[in-house]
Design brief:
0% strand, 656 residues
């Protein structure tokens, strides 16, 4: 070792201490012969690594290990290997380092980092705890931070909180990200106010860093044993989190302090001009605040910042949809689709928009394109099924869902398939699909959707007791849904449990006095109970809510007919026929009324009209047979009606 070697080494170390790594490397290379101690050898390898000569550093440390077999050399080589994403090799070196010297906390710490990066969280937690046992107060806070990060990444924010609290227990050794991660985990366990307090402390420190000429490196270096590379990583994380303003805005929003939330997001936008995340957050705050017009402005600004980011388009479309402005939502989705016509996601939303606008032909055409681009996504087939259901093409919907199920045996798809089967009258198949959904998700058996669906299917199958049981279970879960009382009341009516049906209708109307269907149903129950006054009152309430409804006038005619008010009954049936001239049953009621009033001509004409407007599939001969089978009329009336109908059909009847 020459004098010049020592001089070059001294100059190199001088530059290294001043972070001038290139000059440091230049002079230390010249004085490499003077590197004797293990500390200097490890420092030289680290310098090679941070100046981009990582492979040379690894090779050099390999030589050091051969000379000395030092645990520290293994640890340092592992550190470099880990930063080169060669985690498994790093762990092998660390295993050897721990075998040689298990007392060095840094080896346990580094192996914990390597295991964390590999997602082996149990091993990482074990190693960090071993490191903590061996550390003193000057370094342990950073290990608590890494242990907290491991708990956080493994989905255990509660344990992470206790670790992050340890990491800030010595404020002079804490850095901004320690506070940020503690606040984030406190938020995850719903300790929002505490999270806010902690985050403000972290922001004050982050702002001090930012105000410093060196961006806070001196403060960082005094507080921690982290490397300069770690400092850059932490500062990048601060920037990625918009100097913590995004989380600050979110916490204020959760607490309902919307003005402060907007102020926080706006501060972030002053620091990070054009940040889409902050525009989205401020729009979310405005929406929660009830200031939708300002939310819309922010979403528009976000759209202009980055046309490749779909989120502002989707959020603005959702906002319009909540305002029931589907056409405005469609305009936004159309803009997105025109910018990205070959994007499956944009195509999906465009098809969905057409579907919502009842432009199902266009929706189906776009879904065809979508399936050409992406035929391996079950959501695309379920979208097709929805469109086909709206178009009334239930077999096509069924086939689309079969394809979806081949890609994903998901309970929700089986549930939708059950609905399609139910609409086609395939009740047994519908039940089987529901059972498949339950087999995949046992909790679904107690879900309101499942219970309601089974109730509907049992009702269609005439299994009234099973239907009642299913609806009863749903009502226990959602006692405030008036429709459920209507469904069950129908079953009570069908099983002659009129009082129970009446009770369900009344309960439903107490929940929603404007529910027209329940007035109609209760009117029918009162009619069955021969309480014509209440039956009439309920159907009149229905007509107030839905004026001119022909079904209500038909019910009104039935009530007047049974209550022996023929003129009022005739007037009601005429109201039906004004809207639906082909309503056969109204003609038959009128025929009975005219027969009772001894009006033979009107009686015959209404019987003929009844026959004419029977089911379209009924042949002329079958219509005559139907008239012959009518009860409540004398033979002369029926013969005259048959004769008149025969004359009307003429040659067609002869051929029959």
């Amino acid at each position: 070792m020459s004098l010049m070697d020592r001089i070059w080494l001294g100059i190199g170390n001088y530059y290294r201490r001043r972070q001038n790594t290139e000059k440091a490397l230049k002079y230390i290379r010249k004085g490499q012969g003077a590197i004797q101690s293990l500390d200097d050898q490890v420092a030289y390898a680290e310098l090679l690594h941070i100046t981009g000569h990582s492979n040379e550093a690894i090779e050099y440390l390999g030589q050091v290990i051969e000379w000395k077999g030092a645990a520290r050399a293994y640890e340092r080589r592992a550190h470099i290997l880990r930063e080169m994403n060669r985690e498994e090799e790093a762990i092998t070196d660390l295993d050897e380092a721990i075998r040689l010297n298990s007392d060095n906390y840094l080896t346990w710490y580094t192996r914990g980092i390597a295991y964390k990066d590999l997602g082996k969280y149990d091993e990482a937690i074990r190693d960090f705890k071993e490191a903590i046992k061996r550390e003193d107060q000057s370094t342990v806070v950073s290990t608590y931070y890494e242990l907290g990060m491991t708990y956080f990444e493994s989905g255990n924010p509660a344990e992470a909180v206790s670790c992050f609290k340890e990491s800030i227990s010595q404020p002079d050794r804490a850095i901004p990200m320690y506070y940020f991660m503690l606040a984030r985990c406190l938020d995850l366990i719903d300790s929002v106010e505490e999270a806010l307090t902690v985050l403000k402390q972290g922001m004050q420190l982050a702002d001090r860093y930012e105000a410093a000429a060196d961006q806070g490196y001196s403060l960082f270096d005094e507080s921690t044993n982290y490397s300069h590379g770690a400092f850059k990583t932490f500062q990048r994380q601060v920037r990625e989190n918009y100097s913590f303003r995004w989380l600050l805005a979110d916490l204020y929003m959760q607490l309902g302090q919307y003005e402060k939330a907007v102020e926080a997001a706006s501060e972030g936008l002053q620091k990070y001009t054009g940040a889409v995340e902050l525009y989205l957050k401020r729009a979310q705050i405005y929406k929660a605040w009830g200031k939708n017009h300002l939310a819309q402005e922010d979403l528009e600004l976000a759209m202009h910042q980055d046309q490749s980011d779909f989120r502002p388009y989707f959020e603005l479309a959702r906002l319009y949809r909540e305002e029931e402005a589907e056409e405005k939502a469609a305009e936004i989705i159309t803009k997105l689709y025109r910018l990205h016509p070959e994007s499956p996601l944009a195509c999906y939303w465009m098809a969905d928009s057409y579907y919502r606008l009842d432009q199902n032909d266009k929706a189906l055409q776009l879904n065809d394109k979508l399936l050409e681009m992406e035929n391996d996504d079950p959501a695309n087939y379920t979208q097709r099924a929805d469109i086909c259901i709206e178009m009334g093409d239930l077999p096509a919907a069924e086939q689309a869902l079969i394809k979806a199920l081949k890609l994903s045996d998901h309970p929700e798809i089986h549930n939708k398939q059950s609905y399609v089967m139910y609409l086609q009258g395939k009740n047994e198949e519908a039940l089987i699909e529901l059972q498949k959904a339950v087999s995949l998700d046992p909790d679904f058996a107690e879900h309101p959707t499942y219970l309601t669906a089974t109730g509907h299917i049992y009702k269609e199958m005439g299994l009234w007791d099973l239907a009642i049981d299913a609806y009863t279970k749903v009502i226990h879960i959602h006692p405030g849904n008036p429709r459920l009382y209507e469904f069950r009341a129908v079953c009570f009516l069908e099983t002659d449990q009129l009082d129970r049906g009446l009770s369900d209708c009344t309960q439903g109307l107490e929940l929603d006095p404007a529910y027209a269907g329940l007035y109609s149903l209760r009117s029918g129950i009162y009619l069955s109970m021969m309480d014509y006054t209440r039956a009439r009152m309920d159907i009149m309430s229905f007509l107030e809510l839905q004026p001119g409804h022909p079904g209500a006038y038909y019910r009104l005619g039935q009530i007047y007919y049974r209550d022996n008010d023929p003129e009022a009954a005739l007037e009601a049936f005429d109201q039906v026929l004004n809207v639906i001239p082909e309503h056969a049953d109204s003609y038959l009621y009128k025929a009975h009324l005219y027969f009772q009033q001894l009006e033979p001509e009107d009686t015959v004409q209404n019987i003929v009209n009844w026959g004419l407007h029977l089911n379209d599939a009924t042949s002329p001969v079958e219509k005559i047979q139907a008239i012959e089978a009518l009860e409540g009329f004398d033979e002369d009336i029926l013969e005259r009606a048959i004769e008149k109908l025969t004359e009307m059909y003429g040659h067609q009847l002869y051929l029959s």
